[in-house]
């Protein structure tokens, strides 16, 4: 635990550090923690190209380019990473450093020895694919504590983190039900039609005119059912010629406007899965089976078995249409079942822990962790 306050009148300093990742998952989880860090000087250090969104939400951040972003050789980048991290720690003198990722970078253990005085926390989601990433568990010794955000599908977890020593909190999301906008307002602010059924489609990269892919199959099936397809901008960034075929959604966090949609077709990454279920959005989950570590198939299998959502491994227009029709008819009931099983948001529990590590007296923020 940090024993001194480095940030003076601003309160103890907490640095939230995200790995590069392939999306917004790590940053979103850290942003959820940040909401409860009252009385702290919160700063972000991120290797994600999406880091500027942090500034739009009112937080200070610095960008530390990943190896992929620099194109450098691994050995050269590791030296750059260590030099930049040491310089940053010496300059900011944090009381607590929180790293969110599944692969702590070599050099972090050196940096914390070179610049002592901080408590280090590894924020590490579970549900790893069986047998994967086992070697990373030895890096637990680099940290004072492992913080594990819960997973609604934890009963289906057979990955390497099961049974490891960790401070576990309830599933973490940035947005809760109290943050949802009314349907009319949400549609207006997203620039969507006021009337008619709409579906949020968030499946990653793809071509909406290629029905052999998940994205194209979903859009085609929705059209057949008379449902407007609202595709996240990231998924169609390279398809400007398709602008009139779908509604574009470019917003963060879009989950605060989930009431605009009648259903969703979504991948099953940690944030999408938990936001959709927690916020009551009837969902057809299509797991991204190309992820190297995140066991999205296990999440989908659990949700389907519990009756919370529908799932499909590969979509075709013919196969997607009956699933989406069923979701239109019965999705609201499924969504209510998922919400009834939700233990609540663990973001406040995690923030209370970090406040204690920073030397602040805890304020009631939830039920805590185990």
Report strand order across the widest sheet: 3-2-1-4-5-6-7
Tell how many strands the DSSP assignment holds: 13
Q: How many alpha or pi helices?
A: 11
Helix-strand string: EHEHEHHEHEEEHEHEEEHEHEHH
Distance between the termini: 18 Å
Q: What ranges have pLDDT less than 50 throughout 5 or more consecutive residues? A: 1-7, 235-241, 363-368
Radius of gyration: 21 Å
Can you tell me the overall shape? globular
Instruction: Tell me the β content.
Output: 15-25%
Taking the sheet with the most strands, its summary is: 7 strands, parallel
Q: Estimate percent helicity.
A: 25-40%
- Mean pLDDT metric: 91
Broad structural category: alpha/beta
Short description:
With 370 residues, this protein is an alpha/beta fold.
List keywords for this structure.
disordered C terminus, globular, 16% strand, alpha/beta, 13 strands, six-stranded parallel β-sheet, 370 residues, seven-stranded parallel β-sheet
What does this structure look like?
With 370 residues, the chain is of the alpha/beta class. It has eleven helices and 13 strands. It has a seven-stranded parallel β-sheet with strand order 3-2-1-4-5-6-7. Helix 4 runs parallel beside helix 5. The relative contact order is 0.15.
